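User: Hello! I'm new to structural biology and keep hearing that structure can be predicted from sequence alone. Could you demonstrate with Zinc-binding dehydrogenase? Please show me the input and the output so I can see what each looks like.

Assistant: Of course. The first part below is the input, the amino acid sequence of Zinc-binding dehydrogenase. The second part is the output, the predicted structure written as tokens.
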Amino acid sequence: MRAAVLTGPGQIRISEVARPEPGQGQVRLRLEGCGVCASNLTPWAGPEWMQYPTEPGSLGHEAWGVVDAVGEGVEGLSVGDRVAALSYKSYAEYDLAEVTSVVRLPDALAGQPFPGEPLGCAMNIFRRSGIEAGQTVAIIGIGFLGAILTKLATDAGARVIAISRRPFSLDLARRMGAAETIPMEDHHAIIEQVKALTGGTFCDRVIEAVGKQWPLDLAGELTRERGKLIVAGYHQDGPRQVNMWLWNWRGIDVINAHERDPAVYMQGVREAVDAIASGRLDPGFLYTHTYPLDRLGEALDATRDRPDGFLKALVTYG
């Protein structure tokens, strides 16, 4: 099979390697594609701790495809089933997954890409946020995740204030149901706008979905007394400082909405399958850029640079 190997910072080689064989409780997937995650960008940049070359397929974890072999003890899945999986070497034409980390895709999703891990993440973050009808919710950062959360919160009856840097993202937020949009330009101006929009009380829920220091600072300022600040951004490029004086004074709850339990991950993926198959959620137009495996480097660069109109990249295997 063909698999991507990172050979150094910003360098990829496509190698021919042996197909993996499924072990006890595993299935092998003939992959149709894999989403490109922002968490890939730190290894792509080449931090001091990164070791090269990587194992074939490494970093890819947003896969979907068809079961093509099953290991001993596997029940409930058969060769030919189309599935989404939480697997970890999916920048390749085949990958292995534990049977507990695979969700069958219904016929209603036939032919549709399904990067299960980020879709499941969105569902889990939404559940952890405790968003209800009548609440005012600020979402800072309207990328793939922020756009889906805008839709979920709006459908739940919340009033969403979307805050993002790019005009494209603000247009998208309105399409997903945001009641108000604010350009992410001036820190104090944003605070004053949200204060005016909320009658001085600020927001019941604030979701930070950028993963940088400034949006985290802003999130605290926009959270009302006894509100909830939900950290959905991926903060892996260094330590953060927080305004504990403000957080303490307002008595806010801070929720780190990153899951690490595979069972919880899969619960979110199953919820995403149900939402998309039923028509309640349509993420198809959020997959803005598609690349073949041998252009994975371009997909990673686009994920980093976010050219106009970019939201989410998929790598597909023909």
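User: So the tokens describe the shape?

Assistant: Right, they're a compact way of writing down the 3D structure. Reading them back into a model, for example: The two ends are 12 Å apart (CA to CA).
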